[in-house]
Write the structure tokens for this entry.
Amino acid sequence: MRRKLVAGNWKMHMTATEAVATVECFIKEIGSKDSADMVICPTFLSIPKVRELTKSTKIEIGAQDVFWMPKGAFTGQISAGMLRAAGCSYCIVGHSETRGRFGKLEIPAETVCHFGETDHTVNLKIGALLEHGIRPILCVGETQAERDASMTDAIITTQLEKALHSLDPTELDALVIAYEPVWAIGTGKVCDSLEAERVCGLVRSILEDLVGEGLARTCRVLYGGSVKASNAKELFSQPNIDGGLVGGASLDPKEFAAIVSSA
Ligand code: 13P
């Protein structure tokens, strides 16, 4: 039986002071409820404060990205070892935004080009995280144009194959996958629950081919993209959806607590 997991991706929101107020409110809202594993992924700068506040709770901390080298002259980067030392037990990898794949068309081209994430760097990041005992939350998903061209399944397959390439299946127990269709992120256009279930089931069958039946059965596959308290229950009740990766709605502690409660 896979335990549900709900992770809040705060993206580039909230100062450390705002983060503290939000987490204090979330802790109050959630009380002693223990319906699902909970992860908060604040900005790097807020990780220490949020970790301090959540230490005696069941809430775990995730980072939003990592650099794969252990240390060195890599200005502006943060390593997996540093995240571990700061108390992170999860890290998002290959989010469509770090891949430069935005659902909203008004993003200027220079912003899209800024990120430079590839399937290969995603693969290196997963390796570095596993080495440091951090659970990667690997994001996969198609754009609207790719969906319109019936390329969804091929995109998901390629992203998974390349992300997991040459990694040792015996070390992948910690892996979490999030299906996040790019067109559903921040748009309010949530993926239909049956279609989300179909793609999460596809993720599981691709995993079976890549890393074996055991891991495919135990790996948690989340859905992300416009998850709210009003749609979470239906999404999370699908057999292949093991919880959610929540963006905007995780910034509101009451809403996020309600989402966790529906898991
Ligand atoms: P929204 O929940 O704001 O659509 O964002 C989803 C997401 O990108 C989580 O990683």
